[in-house]
What does this fold into?
Amino acid sequence: MYQAPRGTSDILPEEQAYWDYIRQKAEQICALYGYHRIDTPTFEDSRLFVRSIGEETDIVEKEMYSFNDKGGDSLTLRPEGTAPVCRAYIEHGMHTLSQPVKLYYFASIFRYERPQAGRYREHHQFGVEAIGDNDPALDAEVIHMASQLCTKLGLKRLALSLNSIGCNNCRPKYLESLKAYYSQHKESLCPDCKRRLAVNPLRLLDCKKPSCTPLTERAPQSIEYLCSDCAEHFEQLTKFLKLLNIAFSLTHRLVRGLDYYTRTVFEISPEGETGAQVAICGGGRYDNLIEQLGGKPTPAVGFATGIERLVLNLKRQKVPIPLLSTPTVFIAYLGKEAKEEAIKLASHLRGRGISVISTFSERSLKAQLKQANTSRARYAVIIGEDEVKNKCVVLRNMAEGKQEIIPLDKVASILH
Ligand code: HAM
It folds into this structure.
């Protein structure tokens, strides 16, 4: 028996109500904040991700689905959505548009991770990127958008973690102090962190290994090392968040698992739970990325949310979800001639915009009405031999259980 590959799942029809609900709310929010949809390819040149996410990150070191295609090019299934959007921004000369360019996407994301609840090898993200402005008011707007999405979905008891990790000016000094601190505790670090200590000490702060987490608590804090511009940016941001009534907690160990971030980083997680494994949303500013990828210096900020994690939390919090739409009519028939009438009537009704389902192989009337019930159709139309002869149908209101005989040519206007 074949099974879906480990860490992937089928999204069955009964699950789709959650996905539709999330997509609808996300699109409403994008319209409110002036974002436009972008779709990028499922795979990209591997170098795009290595360059942007960073060679010394878990994603690039261990989690990318990379392969050589038949032409010998190294391609990678998208492990995140920001770098492809930046690539598209540069490739299509979007710097000539009015800035910031505000883009959103729904995309499947591939990471070779150890699967567990809320963590998959293929997951789906809704993400937004606002490219071309460094105003902290834009950071606040993006965070507001993430928080509004959660609120509009009906999620409660969520917490926003916030931090600033500085820029190219102030970060080197901070990294030096991190290096000095962790070097004193080198013997307790996990092998990955020991290795990264020299090349990418920031990554030590988001190591998930139990041996490394206690050390992180007492590690130097990036906020203490910000240059005056970054400190001012962060102060403005927190002022705007307060203006918008967005509660946050300053989380010193929040650095995010991707190397492109500068200044603002944030995550939204269920209250009392922290860490990348439970985060519903994550994002931040990435002012150097477009330039790093060959574009002009262009500041940007964005976030992404894992749709599976939203579904998980909607279920945990028992948020009521609107049901998927149901058919208006179920057509039941008995006999060969009635079947022909049913086929014609179904086509006629659909042509008038009325949704119709019906059975195909011969079944008893009882079985067909049972099927009408489970389909949650509002009406059943029943056509038997007598109805064919008299050019009429039985129209049954499923909720009320009442039925009447009506002329065949009146069905569409009555149901419309
Ligand atoms: P990320 O934090 O790696 O950020 O992923 C964003 C969200 O995707 C997470 O908060 C989580 O909800 C979900 N997620 C991540 N990995 C998995 C997984 N293995 N299984 C299920 N859900 C997962 C980014 O990808 C950045 N590109 C976000 C961003 C946009 N930053 C700026 N703009």
Q: What stands out?
A: Residues 80-82, 111, 113, 118-120, 123, 125, 127, 129, 257, 279-284, 302-306, 308-309 surround histidyl-adenosine monophosphate (CB under 6 Å).
